[in-house]
Write a structure and sequence with these properties.
Distance between the termini of chain A: 44 Å
Strand content of chain B: under 5%
Structural class of chain B: mainly alpha
Largest sheet of chain B: none
Strand order of the largest sheet of chain A: 1-2-5-4-3
Order of helices and strands of chain A: HEEHEEEEHE
CATH topology of one domain in chain A: Beta Polymerase, domain 2
Radius of gyration of chain B: 20 Å
Number of helices of chain B: 12
Radius of gyration of chain A: 16 Å
CATH architecture of one domain in chain A: 2-Layer Sandwich
Oligomer: heteropentamer
Chains: A alpha/beta (about 150), B mainly alpha (about 325), C alpha+beta (about 400), D alpha+beta (about 190), E alpha/beta (about 150)
CATH superfamily of one domain in chain A: NADH:ubiquinone oxidoreductase Nqo5 subunit
């Protein structure tokens, strides 16, 4: 590990600001942090947090994909039990090219949710070991994504 | 020279005892198992007519032979199972001496008793279902592991009585007291009870038809009348096993003196008690044990139980009373 | 399709070991599992989509019906997320009632699981015993909330029904006492029984490293030595006042997970006793009239682990997006390291040991992440395989 | 011998007798708080539609039966969440203790409450029930309202809008065939 | 003879439980009906693992597109005569899920249903009532094939 493990809330914030160069950091409360990063940085973020999992009793909770009319937003929720907080990393994915790097090979727990988002929202996860159909039945038509709100 | 009326009598015997009495007693014993289990599990349990209702219902249902099955073997396997257990029952003395007794009948019964398992294997592999295939595999390995200690345990009374005839073994016990009260006899009894659980496919050895693992194992594709035959065979098997153990080690199921009413009554009562004791022991083991994993079960049979059986066999040679 | 001596054993979709349909394909060599492929999604009902069509108050009933066993976890989670988004303060009494219901549910769920797990290893008598002692809890629920399952107790801002504590207090305490006695007795019968131990000890081991990598939660994580529990880490409802003692085992096998659940049940009994002793009076709902444009995250320690909901409101009563992550969804991938190398006979109990709730998960399929290899065999292919009357025995 | 503990429990069960309810032979009533099939007080219900709008499963429907309007609860779709009892302004809906709803024909398990309907005086479209109109009139009587109020309340929203528009433009108001409501109200009282 | 057969059928209904995508509660209440409190074994009811052994098919939950073909297959695998019970609101009408995108419809859209037991979930007592209704239907069939 090339960094000092943060022992409190402020150190974690500092670490994120230093390591990930986020677009913005939104501290809602002592339990919720929202960090906006560029979608290219997601693997870097995943690697960073993976290293924090053991010392901070953290884990990848889930990812939410949202249809925001002109772009998609993916929110990766990480929980850190030691600090009792949920850290949400937000990435914007353009609508014309719905692609983002996969973190499933780093964090095994992310494999399902990426496939699910691929199914329901039609976002491609580049480098996912197995991006097969997951939730929907096999005879589901191609190119129809039930959770997309705006076409 | 065979008299015609002897043949007639034998047929009547087979029909009366084999096809009417044996299945009914067997079904009654299964009801005891179910009811006792239910009561010990805080339940009320099924009414007494339940096993008959089950069998009649199954007999009345549609007969399905799955497309994947080999038709003839699939149909014959349950018949084989039922026929062999009924034959095994007929050969053994039950209340009276059986007309079918002959030298070596113990050996024949031991072989007939392993036939239902073989029939299940035949039927299972004929049905072409993967669960059945796994069940057959397990059944096969299980047979290999329990037959040896079973035969060793059966040798204890045979060696004590120096005979391969049931009636001689029973007579020996009438003279010297039931074998279970000797050390070697008791060990043989323990072995037989364990093997009995495996032969009846009851926990902890209900491995071949483990419901939560492989659904119903070899019986998965069976339905309607064919399943009813298997159920009947299983019920009669319960009776056969209880009879076998009682005959070999518990002093035999026989009325020693037909001239005195008192003796007849007490002996009949004793017969019932002996069978019930065996059945209730089986029920207790069944209800208070989880199912073992196949390899654990095989290990148990090959190591512990075979060892106990061997010990019993050795002790049976020791010429001291109560050994 | 078939390689070498492998035999494919489908565990599901309809299998007596599970009350829910999921298809686990076990690739076995003899009796030992060499690879698994899990095709889930037999219960996908599109709840996240439906949630975007109902009002916030109605979604509570929808998320309640994600899963029947943990049917108060999802509403708690959802309501907390909505409350966070709206900035609502939940009244004290409501927080205590939520805790009471959640802990009762944990007891009912763990007893249910214990019964089912023992049923999976063929110990039906103990299954009946556990369910017999679970039944009073259900009856308690019926009296407290009006239904044996699906309690419909929560609404954003509080709870929907008040509890008549004067009447219920002796009843709750009586049931708790009975459960405490029964659990201590039956847990001994499970954990010290040689044959049960033989079926559970050293089976389905999940190491701490794997547990972290696969991001497991709940008793599965706590059985592997990961001390994570939302109730203690991020106290919600009344857990801050009542306190939670997190139980952890380090072995990571089926037995450890079982014992964690047993200890947790006893802990829940104590929490409930403390909860009804110190329940404050007051209102049970916080009023709200406006729907802001905001988002919030709700977390709850369901009986199976951490449950997390993300809710985004768009200024109307109908939420813009509801994201649901049930605990089993996080725990399922960890089955890959748990299953491989063990026997088919172990598969049901290993699968059962994570207390899978497929209707929560309602989707998913597993990939062997380590080598990326998956073999999919649809049911039709499988039937084909059966129809050819190639006896699997002969294939070997 | 820990197995003994389990066996002892078995003996306890044998001695104490079964834990089973003798249900079909003896009644097994649910507790007072049970959420059974929602039942409607026919005297109180005004068919206002609050339950219909709030029902999460759309098990409740408002049916137009010509002269009558019916509130129909289909128990086949009801999830017994008791949302309708919360939102009912008249407190007409109560969760009953009925739980046995099993049936051969699923269309049968419904409760329909019907009451005289109020139709639009111009286009004849269903507005709501008579009772609801009475209630609204009752409530707003004290307020200073335009005289043509009674006429307005007996029109459907579409016609009302047209009437208001014509009023605002100073055009002649279309004559409403017969204003019967006040009479009806007084009769009922 | 047919009287005896009908008697046996009524006294020994074996269930096969099919979960076509429910929330588990109906399944649990069905299982609950087997356990000490309700003990349906006193009416001869058993839960069987294989559809081949069963007389009554109990379906819980709304049928989704994934389970649709399997439900049909299981129904075909069961030997005649057979009875289908739709357990719970979802199986009866779809309940809260009826508008989802992955839904094929309630059970009676796929296979003929004999008895419906609405409830979310039904009390075990209601399940017993429903099964009794199903048995009355068996009596009406009088051993004939459906």
């Amino acid at each position: 590990m090339s960094f000092k493990v943060p022992s409190n809330f402020n150190e974690l914030l500092k670490l994120i600001e230093g390591e990930l160069s986020p677009i913005s950091v939104d501290v809602r409360s002592s339990k919720r942090i929202y960090v906006d990063i560029k979608k290219e940085d997601i693997r870097r973020a995943a690697k960073l947090f993976l290293d924090l999992f053991e010392p901070l009793r953290g884990r990848f909770s889930t990812a939410t994909a949202m249809d925001c009319r002109d772009h998609f937003e993916i929110l990766y929720h990480f929980s850190f039990s030691e600090l009792g907080l949920v850290l949400t990393v937000r990435c914007k994915v353009p609508r014309y090219k719905p692609e983002i790097d996969s973190i499933a090979d780093l964090i095994y727990g992310a494999s399902f949710i990426e496939r699910e988002i691929h199914d329901l929202m039609g976002i491609k996860f580049m480098g996912h070991p197995n991006l097969r159909r997951l939730v929907l039945p096999d005879d589901w038509p191609e190119g129809v994504y039930p959770l997309r709100r705006y076409g | 020279m065979i008299d015609l009326w002897v043949v007639g009598l034998s047929i009547a015997y087979i029909v009366l005892i084999g096809l009417l009495i044996a299945p009914n007693i067997g079904l009654f014993l299964t009801w005891i198992h179910r009811k006792l289990g239910a009561r010990m599990q805080w339940r009320i349990g099924p009414p007494i007519y339940q096993p008959w209702a089950d069998v009649i219902k199954l007999l009345s249902k549609e007969l399905i032979v799955p497309e994947t099955a080999h038709r003839a073997t699939f149909l014959l396997a349950p018949l084989l199972a039922l026929a062999t257990v009924i034959l095994a029952f007929l050969i053994m003395p039950f209340v009276g001496r059986t007309p079918l007794a002959f030298v070596g009948d113990v050996i024949v019964v031991i072989y007939l008793m392993s036939m239902p398992a073989l029939a299940a294997m035949i039927g299972g592999s004929a049905s072409g279902n993967p669960y059945a295939a796994v069940g057959v595999q397990r059944e096969m390995t299980l047979i290999f592991s329990y037959e040896l200690p079973f035969i060793m345990a059966a040798l204890v009374p045979i060696l004590k009585a120096r005979s391969l005839k049931f009636i001689d073994i029973i007579n020996y016990q009438l003279g010297n007291g039931p074998l279970v009260f000797t050390i070697s006899g008791f060990l043989a009894f323990v072995v037989m009870v364990m093997v009995m659980q495996a032969k009846l496919a009851l926990p902890p050895f209900d491995i071949p038809e483990a419901k939560t693992e492989i659904i119903a194992g070899p019986y998965v594709e069976y339905s309607g009348p064919l399943l009813a035959l298997f159920k009947l065979a299983h019920a009669v098997m319960l009776l056969v096993v209880a009879c076998f153990v009682s005959n070999m080690l518990l002093g035999g199921l026989i009325v020693s003196d037909w001239s005195s009413y008192v003796v007849i009554l007490t002996d009949l009562l004793l017969i019932a008690v002996k069978i019930l004791v065996v059945i209730i022991i089986a029920a207790f083991i069944r209800f208070y044990n989880p199912r073992l994993r196949p390899d654990q079960a095989f290990g148990m049979f090959w190591k512990t139980i075979t060892f106990i059986a061997a010990l019993a066999l050795i002790l049976s040679f020791v010429p001291i009373p109560y050994f | 399709m078939m390689s070498g001596g492998e035999l494919v054993i489908p565990l599901g979709p309809y299998h007596p070991a599970f009350k829910e349909p999921e298809l686990f394909k076990l690739y076995v060599d003899g009796e030992s599992i060499v690879n698994i492929d899990i095709r889930l999604g037999f219960q996908h009902r599109g709840i996240e989509y439906l949630a975007q069509k109902l009002t916030v108050q109605q979604v509570v009933f929808l998320v309640e019906r994600i899963c029947g066993i943990c049917s108060t976890s999802h509403p708690t989670c959802f309501c907390q997320a909505v409350e966070e988004a709206m900035g609502l303060e939940v009244p004290d009494r409501a927080r205590y009632i939520r805790t009471l219901i959640a802990e009762l549910e944990r007891i009912h769920s763990h007893l249910l699981w214990a019964g089912v797990a023992l049923h999976l290893i063929g110990y039906d008598t103990l299954f009946m015993y556990f369910w017999r002692y679970r039944e009073p809890v259900c009856e308690l629920f019926e009296e407290l909330t009006g239904n044996r399952q699906h309690y419909a107790m929560l609404c954003p801002g509080g709870v929907r029904r008040d509890i008549d504590l004067k009447k219920m207090r002796p009843k709750i305490l009586k049931v708790m006492k009975e459960i405490k006695e029964a659990i201590t007795k039956l847990a001994d019968a499970v954990a010290r029984d040689r044959l049960v131990r033989a079926r559970m000890e050293g089976i389905g081991v999940l190491t701490k490293q794997d547990a972290i990598r696969y991001c497991v939660v709940g008793p599965t994580a706590r059985g592997s030595g990961l001390k994570i529990d939302v109730r203690a880490d991020e106290p919600y409802a009344a857990y801050k006042e009542l306190g939670v003692d997190v139980k952890v085992m380090t072995e990571g096998d089926v037995l450890a997970r079982t014992l964690v659940r047993v200890l947790e049940t006893l802990e829940s009994v104590e929490i409930i006793e403390r909860c009804i002793d110190s329940m404050p009076n007051g209102p049970i709902t916080a009023e709200f009239n406006e729907y802001p444009v905001a988002d919030g995250i709700g977390k709850h320690e369901a009986p199976r682990g951490e449950d997390i909901h993300y809710v985004k409101l768009n200024g109307t009563p109908v939420p813009e997006r509801v994201k649901i992550r049930a605990p089993t969804y996080a725990n399922l991938p960890s089955l890959v390291p748990q299953l491989i190398g063990y026997s088919i006979a172990d598969a049901p109990i290993i699968l059962g040991s994570i207390d899978p709730c497929f209707s929560c998960t309602e989707r998913v399929s597993i990939v062997d992440v380590r080598n990326g290899r998956t073999i999919t065999l649809s049911m039709d292919e499988f039937n084909e395989f059966c129809r050819k009357r190639k006896n699997p025995l002969k294939v070997r | 011998m820990t197995k003994l503990k389990a066996v002892l429990e078995g003996f306890r069960a044998l001695i104490k007798g079964p834990f089973t309810v003798r249900y079909p032979f003896e009644p097994s009533p649910p507790p007072e708080t049970f959420r059974g099939a929602p039942k409607r007080d026919i005297e109180k219900c005004t068919a206002c539609g609050a339950c219909y709008q709030n029902c999460p499963t759309k098990a409740i429907s408002i049916l137009d039966l010509g002269k009558e309007v019916a509130v129909d609860v289909w128990y086949g779709k009801c999830i017994f969440c008791a949302r309708c009892t919360e939102v009912c302004p008249e407190e007409a809906v109560k969760m009953s203790l009925t739980y046995d709803l099993s049936t051969y024909n699923k269309e049968e398990v419904r409760e329909s409450v019907s009451m005289p309907a109020q139709r639009c005086q111009i286009c004849g479209k269903l507005i709501t029930s008579d009772r609801q109109v009475d209630k609204v009139i009752d409530r707003v009587k004290i307020l200073p309202l335009p005289l043509n109020y009674h006429m307005m309340v007996s029109l459907c929203p579409e016609c009302k809008r047209k009437q208001q528009a014509t009023l605002l433009l100073g055009l002649r108001v279309e004559r409403v065939p017969a204003i019967t409501i006040p009479v009806a109200v007084s009769e009922k009282k | 003879m047919s009287g005896l057969i009908t008697w046996a059928r009524i006294k020994s209904p074996w269930l096969f439980h099919f979960n076509s995508g429910s929330c588990n509660n109906c399944d649990i209440e069905l299982l609950d009906a087997l356990t000490p409190r309700f003990d349906v074994e006193r009416f001869g009811i058993l839960l069987e693992g294989s559809p081949r052994h069963a007389d009554v098919l109990v379906v819980t939950g709304i049928v989704n597109r994934q389970t649709l073909p399997r439900l049909k297959r299981i129904y075909d695998q069961m030997p005649n005569p057979k009875i289908v019970v739709a357990l719970g609101t979802c199986a009866t009408s779809g309940g809260i899920f009826s508008e989802g995108y992955n839904i094929a419809g309630p059970v009676d859209k796929v296979i003929p249903v004999d008895v419906y037991i609405p409830g979310c979930p039904p009390r075990p007592q209601a399940i017993i009532d429903g099964i009794v209704k199903a048995l009355a239907k068996i009596q009406a069939l009088r051993g004939g094939k459906r």
